[in-house]
Every structure is written in C-alpha cells, then in structure tokens.
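Lab notes, practical 5.
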Amino acid sequence: MVHGATATLQSFAATYDRVAERTIEPGWISRGVARVRARALDRALISGADPTDSRQLAARACKLTSPSNRALLATGIERLLAAAVGPPSRAHLAPQRATVLSQADELRGLVALLRGQSPLYARGLAMLGDLLTDGTGPVYRGQPEALGSRLEEARCALAG
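Output from the prediction step:
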C-alpha cells in the first residue's frame, strides 16, 4: 500500500513540475519581445516594476539573471577597470579615470558577486548594465560621489 501511495505522489510531483515550468517560464514570443524592448524593460525594472507584472518583464528578468548575462556584466566591469588604468583609446568612449579608480574596490566586489553563485535580483543587474552602457552616466561623465552612490544603490538592489 505504501508503494502505491509513493508512486502516486511521485506522479503528482512530476505533473506539477511540468505545469509549473510552463506557467512560470516565459514563452518564446515573450522572450523575443523582451529582446527587442530590452532597454525599455530595463528602465521599468530599474524604476521598480515587478517582473511578474507582465510576461515581457518576466522574460527580461530571466535574461538579466542568467549566468551568461552575469558573466557578461562581470567582464564589462573588468574591462572598465582595465580601460581606467590603460592608455587612452580613440576607438572607444573613455571612462572618467579618476572616478572609476576611486570606486575600484567596489567594482571588484561587484565582479566577485556577479561571478558567484548567490541569486541576484534583476533590478540590480539592470542598474549595472545601465551604468556600463550609458555614455552620459557617472562612469563616463560623472563625479566619484555620483558613481559611488549609483554603485551602492545597485548593490542594494542586487540583494533585494
């Protein structure tokens, strides 16, 4: 009798897992729309939108929290640090060297966090991506205090 109950329970669990996976994971259409609208969705997440509010936000949050995106952000921060100490380049927008170097320890800490295994929130990951790509932001046009403030805000958002 116990064997029958165990088999029924396992069957129920397997069915539940399949239904949950289809319900929770965004479909290919949502993922495609999220890819096209990535910047707008990132801005919404940065502003505090709940990723469960729409399928596109959920799909973007899945992409942002993926191991490949975390590695991409970590590499971007490492390149930013290298650009701050290396020779100037005419081919790329140069970061504010003094600003970036003043926050080097915090940036290295974020790299370690991104390369780690702890779960991170999509809002914080979107904030980091915005810092790296916004040519008018504190990395490229700001004061050390402004970058420090944004990095602290991103770190807090990463943890939830």
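Observations recorded by the TA: The two ends are 46 Å apart (CA to CA). The chain has a mean pLDDT of 86.
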